[in-house]
Design goal:
The chain is an alpha/beta fold and 461 residues long. Helices cover 42% and strands 14% of the residues. The strands form four sheets. Strands 4-11-10-9-8-5-6-7 form an eight-stranded mixed sheet, with helices on both faces. It has a four-stranded antiparallel sheet with strand order 12-13-16-15, with helices on one face. Strands 1-2 form a two-stranded antiparallel ribbon. Keywords: DNA-binding, Pyridoxal phosphate, Transcription, Transcription regulation.
Length: 461
């Protein structure tokens, strides 16, 4: 404590001295200052560290410590950046809501991840401690990913492990696939409404977007055919299973049709398979990838959704020259995913805890989905739920025509409830007002209370 007081005293004396020095001037060395102040070098170094933290000086190893200019009285002028930067690609309004989950005291009725109690947190902690002791966790990562993890992830897609590319989460996989399969200025077709993160990923890749409507059986294939002919697009983004936000599953007939259209137009389908492990009523449909032997489908999967948002592990599955190009370009991004994270994912997927977790998760999601559906139907009679999803974590609800979803979402937020403004799920103007609800992040009691508060919000409008 005495040394800390002494270093603070020295820092105060030096701060006065700095006011009289020109920016860029070099301070005396530590030993010289130690003699001047009759203090130890450690105490002088602590004083200089305080001044560094305050932005008064800058230490340059091997050269010395230099005076920094005083902070400007006025705010910095960043106007030049607006001229230097090109037009913004990414919709900042949509991006600001993608990862936002509000304050701890708010009821999360729209959130893209599981509640903490639904994640295998204790098991992940045990696995993480064990994995940290493994030499592989601290080795140089392979750009393509751990061979052992790729082998496990390949099983659902019936591919060679070399055709699996490990990435840091599903969102990263979407950006990476879109950027690699298309050039800036190309058109990407997506179903509408759709996942806002996919819209942002396409914008980040510099792609133009063309939307095709969907219904309870998925994307309208006749409209997709028209859009492919009109735009000559070579990339289609789809969520064939438990789509966000609608929860729909692409029907077997339409699955075959979209593959046929991709073949006819020489196009890729990016299959966002984010909810593969979130089935509730029965097994998840087989990946669309499995029906496209000639490589027209590139699948993106994630473990962040069924396991934990902090487990940033996903994969891109691709065949042929597209797969080779994806794998070759991987090193340019980040040289690979942290081996420790991959070891944790591998141990989780191969442990007996994983199937137990998925079984418990299905039970919990079913209960919360049913509570949410019943609460909406009984408490919000003017809100219509067309599809009760058989998997995933989202429920799509229509409001009466003319409802202002922006204002409703804002008022709900002020009432302590998070709901998804349906506008953010459309590329263009929404054809009708919708809200997205999620049943994976809130408890049954929170769901009931959240819907009750929302009813008060709607009654006051």
């Amino acid at each position: 404590m005495i040394q800390n007081n002494r270093s603070t005293e020295i820092a105060a004396v030096l701060a006065v001295r700095l006011d009289a020095m020109r920016p860029g001037s070099r301070l005396p060395g530590v030993r010289e200052l130690a003699l001047e102040f009759q203090a130890s070098p450690a105490t002088v170094s602590a004083a200089l560290a305080e001044l560094t933290a305050l932005g008064r000086v800058r230490a340059e190893p091997g050269r010395g410590t230099f005076v920094l200019g005083a902070a400007a009285d006025s705010d910095p002028d960043f106007a030049w950046q607006s001229q230097a930067l090109s037009g913004a690609r990414v919709d900042a309004d949509r991006a600001s809501r993608l990862g936002g989950h509000g304050a701890p005291d708010q009821l999360p009725l729209s959130w893209g991840y599981l509640a903490p109690e639904l994640s295998p947190t204790a098991e992940l902690a045990r696995i993480g401690a064990r994995a940290a002791k493994h030499p592989r966790s601290w080795a140089v990562p392979s750009p393509g990913g751990s061979p052992e993890l790729r082998r496990v992830l390949a099983a659902d897609y019936r591919v060679d492990p070399t055709e699996v590319l490990v990435v840091p989460g599903g969102q990263a996989g979407l950006v990476y696939a879109m950027r690699t399969l298309a050039d800036p200025g190309d058109t990407l077709i997506m179903e509408s409404p759709s996942y806002p993160g996919a819209i942002l990923a396409a914008q980040s890749a510099g792609l133009k977007l063309a939307a095709v409507p969907a219904d309870r059986d998925g994307i309208l294939v006749d409209r997709l055919a028209e859009e492919l002919a009109r735009t000559r697009a070579r990339v289609i983004y789809l969520q064939p299973s438990y789509a966000n936000p609608t929860g729909v599953v692409l029907s077997a007939e339409r699955r075959q049709r979209v593959i046929e259209l991709a073949v006819a137009h020489g196009a890729f389908i990016i299959e966002d398979d984010w909810a593969r492990h979130l089935n509730i009523d029965g097994a998840s449909p087989a990946p669309l990838f499995a029906t496209a032997a000639d490589g027209h489908v590139v699948s993106v999967l994630t473990l962040s959704k069924p396991a934990s948002p902090g487990l940033r592990i996903g994969a891109v599955v691709a065949r042929g020259p597209a797969g080779e190009r994806l794998r070759a370009a991987r090193a340019a991004d980040d040289l690979g995913v942290a081996p420790l994270t991959q070891e944790i994912a591998l141990d989780l997927l191969t442990s007996s805890a994983w199937p137990r977790h998925l079984k418990r998760l299905r039970h919990e999601l079913a209960a919360r989905r049913d509570v949410l559906t019943a609460a909406i139907r009984t408490t919000l009679p003017d809100v219509h739920v067309a599809n009760v999803p058989s998997g995933g974590i989202h429920l799509w609800a229509r409001l009466p025509q003319g409802a202002d979803t922006r204002a409703i979402a804002r008022a709900a937020h002020e009432a302590g409830v998070l709901v998804g403004d349906g506008r953010h799920f459309y590329v263009d103007e929404p054809p009708a007002p919708h809200l997205r609800f999620s049943f994976g992040a809130a408890s049954e009691a929170q769901i009931t209370e959240g819907v009750r508060r929302l009813a008060r919000v709607l009654a006051g409008r």
